[in-house]
Write a structure and sequence with these properties.
Elements (H helix, E strand, L loop, with lengths): L2 H5 L7 H11 L5 H13 L14 H4 L21 E5 L4 E2 L8 E6 L12 H8 L9 E6 L7 E21 L4 E23 L4 E8 L6 E10 L4 E8 L4 E10 L5 E8 L6 E9 L6 E10 L4 E10 L8 E10 L5 E10 L5 E9 L3 H9 L4 H14 L10 H15 L2
Parallel strand pairs: 1-5, 4-5, 5-6, 6-7, 6-8, 7-9, 8-10, 9-11, 10-12, 11-13, 12-14, 13-15, 14-16, 15-17
Antiparallel strand pairs: 1-2, 3-4
Helix pairs in contact: 3-5, 6-7, 7-8
């Protein structure tokens, strides 16, 4: 299909949407990629008329795609024992030596994507990855407990657009620790990380997202948990012009558990959106979710979380969702939408949502003991944020906390 014909599928496409269509039209035909790209074509870039995107309008924010002139200086460094898989925006680079129990397969064709109709930015990534000319899709099989962390480095060199995908299959009884370092460098990027955990498997995921005010990024995770599987996710985001970190988690087996922890710190002109959707599709599963944010003047934070508990298979669910945020200055923006959709009658589900300012009494107490106001504000905010980062991988936990400290010090100077 020609670029001209594809352009007619989107009502009045923007220059950015036309650039994406041109990219797709130049790729070899593939049925999986075509089905995914059709989802993107229905609406184009997500916009405020879509309920789940009303606070993260990619269409309005991206008139055209260009290489960013600036980039973030915040980044994570892998530990000495980590296995580093680097995605440069074009292809994956995989080391020759890999830990025991870890097998990596390069995919040169399009791959299907579950729940694609609800994921327009992930659909875009699925529609533009999987081809012979570049290796932008990996499948990783974990066959036993891997004793070294897997470090995924997503960093791009001044690209207009970047799309990548990686899928983990964690076999029964196996385990893996994954660290993701998203440091930007593309005008628009969209990546997909998939986890399929079999019975009794375990996976942890620690994520850092940074970017510049000239970038838009979507980071999507799709997680499926079989019986007795355990999944733990910790994320710290500083945002970009637009940044959305999306997690879709589904329980398919009984007595599985997950924790989803996150913190966001967007500076002036930066935007962070944490969106999650958890389907309790099996009995006796446990979910714990804690998201904390601190936003100065001119920054924007978004939290959208949903627990869905079906009538029959969701019995004995135990789930708790908490979002807590600080507006550090006048002009800060925080939008929150926690949701519980419960049809089962034998469950324990709760959610909480609070926003406010720093405790003036605590600030007064600290100043009485000689701590300058700027330092007191930074210390209190750091203590507030740190709780959400306690579950981060031990090899990068202190680096995440230090990045938070540096940000808060700069904001209070």
């Amino acid at each position: 299909m020609t670029t001209k014909e594809l352009n007619t599928r989107i009502d009045e496409p923007t220059r950015a949407e036309s650039q994406l269509i041109e990219r797709f039209a130049g790729l070899p035909e593939d049925s999986h990629r075509a089905r995914a790209f059709e989802v993107f074509e229905r609406t184009g870039l997500p916009h405020r008329r879509l309920e789940q995107w009303k606070w993260s309008d990619f269409r309005a924010g991206l008139k055209s795609l260009s290489e960013p002139e600036q980039r973030s200086t915040i980044s994570l460094s892998p530990s000495d024992d980590a296995a580093v898989l680097h995605f440069d925006g074009v292809r994956w680079h995989v080391p020759e030596e890999l830990p025991d129990g870890l097998n990596v397969f390069e995919k040169t064709e399009g791959q299907s994507l579950g729940n694609v109709n609800a994921l327009p930015m992930a659909a875009l990534a699925a529609g533009l990855t999987g081809q012979d000319e570049r290796i932008d899709v990996l499948q990783v099989e974990i066959t036993k407990p891997v004793d070294r962390p897997i470090f995924l480095d997503f960093s791009y060199t001044s690209a207009k657009m970047a799309f990548g995908r990686i899928a983990f299959v964690v076999r029964e009884g196996a385990s893996v620790d994954v660290i993701e370092n998203h440091t930007g460098g593309a005008g628009l990027s969209s990546t997909i990380t998939e986890f399929g955990l079999q019975k009794g498997a375990r996976a942890t995921r620690t994520l850092l997202q940074t970017g510049s005010r000239q970038e838009a990024t979507a980071i999507t995770a799709s997680v499926n948990l079989a019986a007795e599987a355990q999944y733990e996710q910790t994320a710290l985001a500083f945002g970009a012009q637009l940044a959305r970190i999306e997690t879709w988690l589904s329980y398919t087996g009984e007595e599985a558990s997950a924790s989803l922890n996150a913190a966001y710190l967007p500076a002036k002109g930066y935007h962070v959106d944490f969106t999650s959707n958890v389907l309790h599709g099996a009995e006796s599963c446990v979910t714990r979710q804690l998201t904390k944010g601190a936003v100065p003047e001119g920054g924007r934070g978004v939290f959208q979380g949903k627990f869905h508990v079906p009538r029959t298979v969701g019995q004995y669910t135990d789930a708790d969702m908490q979002h807590q945020a600080l507006l550090l200055d006048n002009g800060a923006e925080i939008f929150a939408k926690p949701e519980l959709e419960i049809y089962a009658d034998d469950v324990e589900c709760a959610h909480g949502n609070t926003s406010g300012q720093l405790d003036e009494t605590a600030l007064f107490y600290m100043r009485q003991r000689g701590i300058p106001l700027a330092d007191a504000r930074a210390l209190l905010t750091e203590a507030f944020i740190a709780e959400a980062l306690e579950s981060a991988n031990v090899s990068v936990r202190e680096a995440l906390l230090e990045a938070s400290r540096d940000f808060l010090r700069r904001q209070n100077q």
